[in-house]
Write a structure and sequence with these properties.
Blueprint lengths: L22 E5 L16 H9 L3 E5 L11 E2 L2 H5 L4 E4 L4 H4 L3 H8 L5 E4 L6 H6 L3 E4 L12
Parallel strand pairs: 1-2, 1-4, 2-3, 4-5, 5-6
Length: 147
């Protein structure tokens, strides 16, 4: 049985006017931190929503190397290069160490988006580096104009 898909809105930002063609990276394939247990990943509905919306989706997980129907990379820099959006959906130790400046350089976007579903990054540090930040339970930390 598929996980229920929550009501989701795709925000529109000045530098990202449409969904179609966006490059998105999901950082996870498990729901348990530092584990290779990829049974029923809660990120799957989000991946499906993004693909159905016309986005190019890449997946990174340092513990899971194979999953039916999903290409997974172990090399973080490969999957975030050129992405418009990075969604962190698992609290792997590696993700706590993400550096906003390095990630922004790899993404190559003027105003990239990070969705922090596990509260693993420094929200203010990412906003200060020029990211649009969306996190769980942290309120609006953005200084960017959003529609």
């Amino acid at each position: 049985m598929k996980s229920p898909i929550p009501t989701t809105t795709f925000p529109t930002y000045p530098h990202h006017p449409t969904r179609a063609g966006r490059g998105s990276t999901l950082l996870d394939r498990t729901h348990i931190s530092n584990s290779d247990d990829a049974r029923n990943p809660p990120s799957e509905p989000y991946r499906e929503l993004l693909v159905d919306a016309g986005c190019s989706v890449t997946v990174h997980d340092p513990y899971v190397l194979e999953y039916p129907g999903v290409d997974i990379s172990r090399e973080l820099s490969d999957v975030v290069r050129g992405a418009d959006v990075v969604a962190i959906l698992t609290g792997h130790d590696e993700y706590f160490a993400l550096d906003a400046g390095d990630l922004k350089d790899l993404m190559g976007q003027e105003c990239p988006v990070v969705v922090d579903g596990r509260n693993v990054v420094d929200a203010d540090g990412f906003v200060g580096a020029g990211f649009v930040y969306k996190g769980i339970g942290r309120g609006d930390r953005n200084e960017h104009a959003m529609k």
